Amino acid sequence: MKVLKKIGAACLLLGLLPLLGGCWDRTEVNDLALIMAAGLDVGQNGDIELSVQVFTPSQSGSEGSGGMGGSSGSDTIVVQSASGTDLAEAAAKLQEQMPRKVFWGHGEVFIIGERLAKQGILDQIDFIFRHPQPRERAYIFISKGDAKKILDIHPKMERDVAETLREMAILPFGMNVSLKDLSEMLTGRSKAAVVPYIVRKEDNDGSPFPFISGAAVIKDGKLQGAFDDTAKRDTLLILNKLRRTNVTFHVNERGGKGEGVMTARVIKGRTKLIPVIRGDRWRMIVRFEGEASILQNETRVNLMKPQEVRHVEEQMNREIEKRIQATFRLIQRETGADVFGFSDAFWRKYPQTWVREQRHWDDIFQNVDLNADSKVEILWPGFSGKSYK
Q: pTM to 2 decimals?
């Protein structure tokens, strides 16, 4: 009986051997070229130029811990470029230039150069969406000029450009659009997208740094225009993606005693789109609500008086409404791109009308009227209610 038990145990162990693969197919981290950021440009011959910012873990940084150790301080970040007929060919040529295996799974940032964005991005980003390694949460940007010039920057405060742009995008006042977001916008009903627009700037000592200066509008896969930071913030507000913002506005004091400027910080902002169709007129009501605190008061208004607070609220809300309307008219007039999600709002409320008219949406959008309705309340006057004047 004991012999049979031993034979059975031996057979069980032998049967488990094929399942114990171990680390026979592992790839050491010091054999990988980790792509942290990638830039897409139009090359000299009209082909596609792929530039990547590569993090190369040092050999010594991996010793003593199975290839997964910490950095020894000699890790390096380099920028490498390759060109091809399309992005797939450029990526293949890039791998031929690298002694390490290219790995896209750590990529945080994809930057598309302005020239390529104007020609059209759909054919090239198809490679990114199909490839199994790039993160769908990686951030996408449009750059003024070539994307490669952004990758060449060596930031002072962060490890590299990828880390700098990622941190700037996720700030409360920032703008972040992931690959997943871009895919949903470009395949949505409006076929339009809005992404951060970055420029290369220089500080006082001439050192370059990347800066998110506004928003770029893409329609049918092509760049239609770039707009300043104010338009970027107001677009995010309409999209219900801006929870916090500062509003600077002029205040006419009660009784006509004078005027000045105030700045309020709006928090807990929330936007509701209310579509209305009357006959052949399509109208959108943008209702914005939130709470505000006063950051700076350059008037003689005493914010400890409730009637004065109500008076200031009215003027602040008029300024917000004016900004919403101005930004909408600007993008509507110059691009004709519905980056605000109005098509989805009309489809949800009027599905039958939308199905009947969706082929004419581009023409309809050009004539959509917008009414802004801001209802922000000032709840905190700051530590000092009275003005110092």
A: 0.85
